Amino acid sequence: MTAAQPPADDRLARRLGLRDAVVIGLASMIGAGVFAVWGPAAQASGAWLLAGLAIAGFVAFANAGSTGQLAARYPESGGAYRYGRERLGEWPGFLAGWGFVVGKTASCAAMAMTAADYLLPGPWEKPVAVLAVVALSAVNLRGITRTARAAAIIVVVVLGVLALVLASGVADLVQVGVRSQQEQGVPDAGWYGVLQSAGLLFFAFAGYARIATLGEEVRDPARTIPRAIAIALGVVVAVYGALAVVLLLVLGPAYLAAGVDAPLADLVAVSGWAWAVPVVQVGAGLAALGALLALIAGIGRTALAMARDRELPAPLAAVHPRFGVPHVAEIAVAVAVVVLVLVADLRGAIGFSSFGVLVYYLVANASALTQPSTERRVPRWLSAAGAIGCLVLVATLPVESVLAGLAVFAVGAVYRSVRLAVARRRTDG
């Protein structure tokens, strides 16, 4: 099965180089989750937090290998939607795309609210969240290079904040050492708890696929996309590993497992750098904005790819003649996110997004398994391990998250079945 190439006027311009692609990948991964995920993960894993992080990192590595290999073969918009459609068939591709577009649109609303909560909590929270969505959508509508520049600024600031956090922890260890009472009250964690922590930590890695989603806009994609994914993921693994070690040594697993909401802010406070707490809070808000910026762009490109195949309404496939972006799709995404921000608070109710992203990567790994040896860049066993890892992590999700995810996919299946039935009726008529 080969996708029909869009007309030249409807193709996106290849404007992103290696640095731009890496920056967008970093902005997608280093979101607000890195500022908050350690508490829930430690509650599940106890003293085995590093084991959970290692499993999450390995699954992310396997998924990244499959994604990079597929992106080199199919350098188009859509990511796993396109790969699944080309390698496995229309239904697997549609389900991957549907889960991404619907689930991540809800995630956008959650990230907008999270950013506003960090930057300006209180009665202005929802207006600030709406303003953030409108402003970032406007940046995206000006072209992918504007998106990359804005992402670069955010990434530099957020990495600077994380470096500050690490410096405070190292300074505390040099001056005070490891506190002796840290092991008291650490919850017992079996293999299930470690896997559950890996599932929670995995979603702090998952944004590297955004690079592949923008594949139609990357120069020399067969070479650039795999390298960009590897570099971005490598940086994030190093940063997360360093943070995990410092958090365990300074705060301890018992403290983390007590359900702290802002462990990085607590780390700088315990280290005696209380003046840096507001800096960390602003950094968390900017990290959420960076992830939101990249995610809006990724959803727009996936919607574009699906609209080209008539899996979503055809107008979403329009490309702006001047800025070379899927402007109708991005405006539709922005409107949907703003509506969700205004009518609901999804920060605690987006379990189906977690379910959807694992299905998305499962489709990518399964697609990579079907590629011939001439197209392979990673060993077949690594793609198989990525697929198995996705299934295992799905099994560790809370039951309500699985049920919500299945409901979202059921709605998508009904939508596609009705659309196909209507199309057949028109053809027969």
UniProtKB/TrEMBL annotation:
Membrane topology term: Multi-pass membrane protein
UniProt keyword annotations, A-Z: Cell membrane, Membrane, Transmembrane, Transmembrane helix
Cross-referenced InterPro entries: AA/rel_permease1, APC_superfamily
Localization per record: Cell membrane
GO annotations of cellular component type: plasma membrane
Transmembrane segments: 21-41, 47-72, 93-116, 128-144, 151-171, 191-209, 230-255, 275-304, 325-344, 350-369, 403-422
Residue stretches in coiled coil: none
Predominant subcellular localization, coarse grouping: membrane
GO molecular function: transmembrane transporter activity
Recorded superkingdom: Bacteria
Name of this protein: Amino acid/polyamine/organocation transporter (APC superfamily)
